Amino acid sequence: MGSDSNRSVYSYYQPADTLFSYAQGFLKNNGSNPWMLYLHLMEPHDPYFEHPILSGGEQEYSGLAYGRKEHEHPDPNKTAEIKDLYKQEVEFLDRKLGVFFQYLRDENLYDNTWIVLVSDHGEEFWDTGPFLGHGASTMVDHRVRVPLVTCGIPIENKRLTHTSNAMIWPTVMDWLSEGAIDFRRYPQIPSSFLQESPNTVASYSL
């Protein structure tokens, strides 16, 4: 990819290792007390980096990356290459999450911690037209239907319509409360995933 072969992740964002290091420092000082921690992990966000370690190499980063900042009009002929980098980013972050979760287990924090893992949007690789990345131009399923994984909060395996990431915090508060919160009293606040028939709103983060 030519000029894209000498990139540093730190020129774009703080990688997962840095954020997890901050998190461990926070937990060493606060882990024995009630705590809440929010981590905004940027992988697998544009630019998408190559990770040789996933295929048996020694380096976590090769310096190869592809991003919209350097390519305002990306080349559709590179779709396969770019998709491969994106998939590498997903797998790389998955491994980093596994290491952090093991840290929580080693510190006897995992079993008493509620974990919510969610994405704010999906990505498009010329799936519906001449577009790479994300934005408000097309609200297609693979852009707005994102994964939600919880650990410790008993969300049933069910399908809801018009849900939103804005429902995550109400769900946490609903689970913390002694009784179910009547969200009908607060029409400006999205409902909880724990409600049988949630009063949801169509609100997306892109």
Structure, explained:
The protein is α+β, with helices and mostly antiparallel strands and 206 residues long. Helix content is 27%, strand content 8%. The chain contains four helices and six strands. The strands form three sheets. A two-stranded antiparallel sheet has the order 1-2. The chain has a two-stranded antiparallel ribbon with strand order 3-6. Strand 4 and strand 5 form a beta hairpin. Helix 1 runs parallel beside helix 2. It starts with 15 loop residues before the first helix and ends in a 30-residue tail after the last helix. The C terminus is likely disordered.
As a whole number of angstroms, the C-alpha radius of gyration is 19 Å
Average pLDDT number:
82
Cα(first) to Cα(last) distance is 28 Å
Structural class: alpha+beta
Which strand-content bin applies to the residues? 5-15%
Count of DSSP strands: 6
How many helices? The count is 4
**Which stretches are poorly predicted, pLDDT < 50 over at least 5 residues?**
198-206
Strand order of the largest sheet: 1-2
Order of SSEs: HEEHEEEHEH
- The outline comes out as flat
Major sheet summary line: 2 strands, antiparallel
The helix fraction, in percent, is 25-40%
Structure characteristics:
206 residues; alpha+beta; two-stranded antiparallel ribbon; 4 helices; 6 strands; disordered C terminus
Write the layout of secondary structure elements.
Layout: H1 16-30, E1 48-49, E2 65-66, H2 79-106, E3 115-118, E4 124-125, E5 132-133, H3 141-144, E6 148-151, H4 168-176
Antiparallel strand pairs: 1-2, 3-6, 4-5
Helix pairs in contact: 1-2
